[in-house]
Amino acid sequence: MNVVYEVADRIATITLNRPEVANAQNAELLDELDAAWTRAAADEDVVVIVLRAEGKHFSSGHDLKDRWPEPKEITLEWIYQAESRRYLEYTLRWRNVPKPSIAAVQGRCIAGGLLLCWPCDLIVAADDAKFSDPVVMMGIGGVEYHGHTWELGARKAKEILFTGRPVTALEAEQVGMVNQVVPRDRLDEETRALALRIARMPPFALRQAKRAVNQTLDVQGFQTAVQAVFDVHQTGHGNALSVNGYPILVELDEMKTKIE
């Protein structure tokens, strides 16, 4: 089971459950995760959704060994369709679930890991959390869901993309990407306390408050920008396809094995 789903005290807790591979996202995990979000959205007994992860790290990003064809069989059309479904449509759907959501993040949150926590309304980070999108070094201008500018601000987003360096939990809190930074051993406790506080609020008012903020961002161009940048993202894959053997997959996989 790649994802564990539990409900208690009007809180749905969704847990990433591949700690042996730092919660790398294979197709099964993402499909199960989407099903869990859908289940929580439809459950009238659920007021708040918490997304958390087992193990040392929140997520090392996409599992690049998962269901990729042989390099000679990869086409840009195949990549676009696969990524559009699981890396963009899912992420936007989670962002727009009409219930408050909280991500609890520990350890590394790399590239595709951002696609899991950024759609959440609030983020509680352990003091050991580090957020990064190093895919520019692999020839692609950033991960598929471009929340960077909105989450970090334009100049910090450029710095992180240009250098590939991780953002610490404290840095993320300073720029408003993270709501709280807590000791690692209190992450679940503090996240649950926040969720319980929110769960006592009227559900309809919570839905309206979330809608108000999300619509304000959309009026500013959020969803249009995310879709546009996703299309630009595909040019990186197109460039990689022009190189024999599609080496991006190998290089990214080697990079991930170096996670501390």
UniProtKB/TrEMBL annotation:
PANTHER family: ENOYL-COA HYDRATASE, IP11341P-RELATED. Belongs to the enoyl-CoA hydratase/isomerase family. It holds the Pfam family ECH_1. NCBIfam families: PRK08290.1 (NF006140). It comes from the Bacteria. GO terms for molecular function: catalytic activity. This is Enoyl-CoA hydratase/carnithine racemase. InterPro entries: ClpP/crotonase-like_dom_sf (IPR029045), Enoyl-CoA_hydra/iso (IPR001753). It comes from Actinophytocola oryzae. Coiled coil: none annotated.
